[in-house]
Write a structure and sequence with these properties.
2 copies of one chain form a homodimer. Chain A folds into 3 domains: 67 residues, 434 Repressor (Amino-terminal Domain) (Orthogonal Bundle); 124 residues, Rossmann fold, CATH 3.40.50; 132 residues, 3-Layer(aba) Sandwich (Rossmann fold). The first copy, chain A, is built from 13 helices and 11 strands. Chain A is of the alpha/beta class. Chain A binds a DNA duplex through helix 2 and helix 4.
DNA sequence: ATGAAAGCGCTAACAC
DNA sequence: GTGTTAGCGCTTTCAT
């Protein structure tokens, strides 16, 4: 029952348990290591009798065998690692939950998903990719051009939820569109965009802003007034006053944190939300219902998003022969937009 | 200047760029692959002439050589991967920033730090560890006993910021102590503990709660009243009313999210904070200053923490011969507690 | 001070 | 159907 091979006389010496190799499995199942490899990898180009197959599986099971990924990668010339680039904490739980779910889905396909945090102090993605040689890189909002280029040159597909700010066309930046649509449906016509001052989020910020701008244009509204809010809420009330003074009736925010800052500005200016100024965020946070007033937001359907990534992963692993090169190119997930995000209506937008 | 080896006649065919190997470097430097390995790994048991050393470095540089980690791991019998287990999003930015910084520090030591999200839907740590065979596993608040045991058995050291709830002794659960100390300094004597209802955080929650309970005992206060707050703020005002009715004057919360919920309950109960009930959280969030009233909290010094981890990593890599086995045992970081966390005072505690 | 050679654990032709 | 074999890129004795 014990998975550890018995090292004769090395019993209570208790060195680190050595893991069984495919040779151990082969020996136990009375087959060759090649057969073990075939069975365990479900290779279809090789006929294996059910009996052998079963014997190998049992032996592996009994030994608690786990393939050495390093050896596998080396021999196969391709790793079984996928890399998930997490943009930044400011995007909220989204990345974490998606990553966590995708990790599980990838594991089913024998791929280990690892997360890499992108931040001002962190390692460049290229650097990590050179170490890990991942089969694919997942990102939320697109990587910078240099990184994307390098990955493509090295045949590593990049899968993004959304293209980055520069490549975005209308329709890709749904969150902004949903914000504006909702505000318009509530009768607002003079809209401001509240941006973040946090560094490192430029690409996402640009994209989200563009969505708001485009949506306003689409609805025949004037270009939204642009304002930036510091998360400390410093100067927030003055900014709010000047927006209201300029006739603005609603604010679409970069995210919920910024929206919360705007809310604070409204209260401190002695104004009311939503009567004097309505506010809506993005990246639905758990505490939105505890805000004063409760904050409307755009919520992502994390499971749906994780599924989109998982599908892309399958495509890549199965090496869809229909489009030989395309797999090694950046691809953007588009799964019926409304399934992926929705408006959460609370008092801050009436 | 181009890092890509030139494949004769395969010029604009543009297959994925193949990466240079140590053989390429050896050839270019007119040495053997062994020498390349020695130089690039800074092996001290081998004397290498400065000239050779320089030649190898130059060749590697010019080729843009990066060692294949899979091959390295295989040959060395040990990976150069470290794993950072991220407990959950509810702990805020802390994990992300720490991980991001530690990633950079690890890279300097030739170690690739990868993050793994722990969550209800995610893969078990053991599973990932079996794939990646990390040199060390970093966790924030300790892993569960099974995981820790498995890792230890396999000689993989575990480094935690804090021991888990069951092993905690007074002094380890500083956040709770700091909360209580601060509240006591503000004249509070009847304290309640507001816990989270989120699943998956039991170990941390237990530990933090214990810190509050112990600190109260230490200060000669009654055992804190225990209450749980749902992040939707559902029922929050009733709970707050009953706490106040019972003579409670201050609440120490599991984290800032819970504290924010308590704040909402206070407002909705028509009470005042801090006059009727003071509140303090943990895990300083950027938006705390925008709360109503601004929320006091406990802030972690992420850089200090990242440094502690980095030191532990160095210890392990250098295989400190003084304590041969201890490296393969769970270790807890303790870096002058007050350096690692501090109270951020705002209006919610007067 | 340097190099030759034997693997590390696995995969994938190819032979039987 | 199953086994043999030749590497994948690197580290590391052991000769020289």
């Amino acid at each position: 029952m014990d998975a550890r091979p018995v090292n004769p006389s090395d019993d209570r010496e208790a060195g680190p348990a050595t893991l069984p190799t495919s040779a151990d499995v082969a020996r136990r199942a009375n087959v060759s290591r090649a057969t073990v490899s075939y069975v365990l990898n479900g290779v279809t180009t090789q006929k294996i009798s059910d009996k052998t197959r079963e014997a190998v599986r049992r032996a592996a099971e009994e030994l608690g065998y786990r393939p050495n990924r390093a050896a596998q990668s080396l021999a196969a010339g391709a790793s079984r690692i996928a890399m998930f680039v997490v943009p930044s904490v400011h995007l909220g739980e989204l990345s974490l939950v998606v990553s966590s779910q995708l990790t599980a889905r990838a594991a089913e396909r024998g791929v280990t998903l690892i997360a890499h945090f992108q931040g001002p102090t962190s390692r460049p993605v290229i650097d990590v990719a050179q170490d890990l040689r991942p089969r694919v890189v997942f990102s939320m909002f697109g990587l910078d051009a240099d990184t994307t280029d390098w990955l493509q040159e090295h045949g590593i597909p990049v899968v993004s939820l959304l293209p980055d700010g520069d490549q975005a066309g209308p329709g890709n930046d749904r969150s902004g569109w949903l914000q504006v649509e909702h505000l318009v449906s509530r009768g607002h016509a003079r809209i401001a965009y509240a941006d973040t001052t946090e560094p490192g989020l430029e690409a996402v910020a640009r994209m989200r802003r563009r969505g708001v701008v485009d949506a306003c244009a689409q609805h025949g509204l004037e270009e939204p007034v642009y304002e930036r809010f510091d998360l400390t809420a410093h100067g927030a009330q003055e900014k709010v006053r000047s927006l209201v003074g300029a006739g603005i009736t609603a604010v679409a925010s970069y995210n919920d944190e910024v929206a919360i800052t705007v809310l604070a500005g409204i209260r401190r200016a002695g104004l009311r939300c939503p009567e004097d100024l309505a506010v809506i965020g993005v990246d639905e946070m758990a505490i939105n219902g505890s805000m004063e007033p409760p904050l409307s937001s755009i919520e992502f359907d994390v499971s749906a998003i994780a599924l989109l990534y998982a599908d892309a992963l399958s495509d890549i692993l199965d090496g869809d022969p229909a489009r030989p090169r395309e797999a090694s190119t950046t691809r953007f997930l588009e799964g019926g937009d409304e399934d992926v995000m929705r408006v959460v209506v609370r008092e801050s937008t009436g």
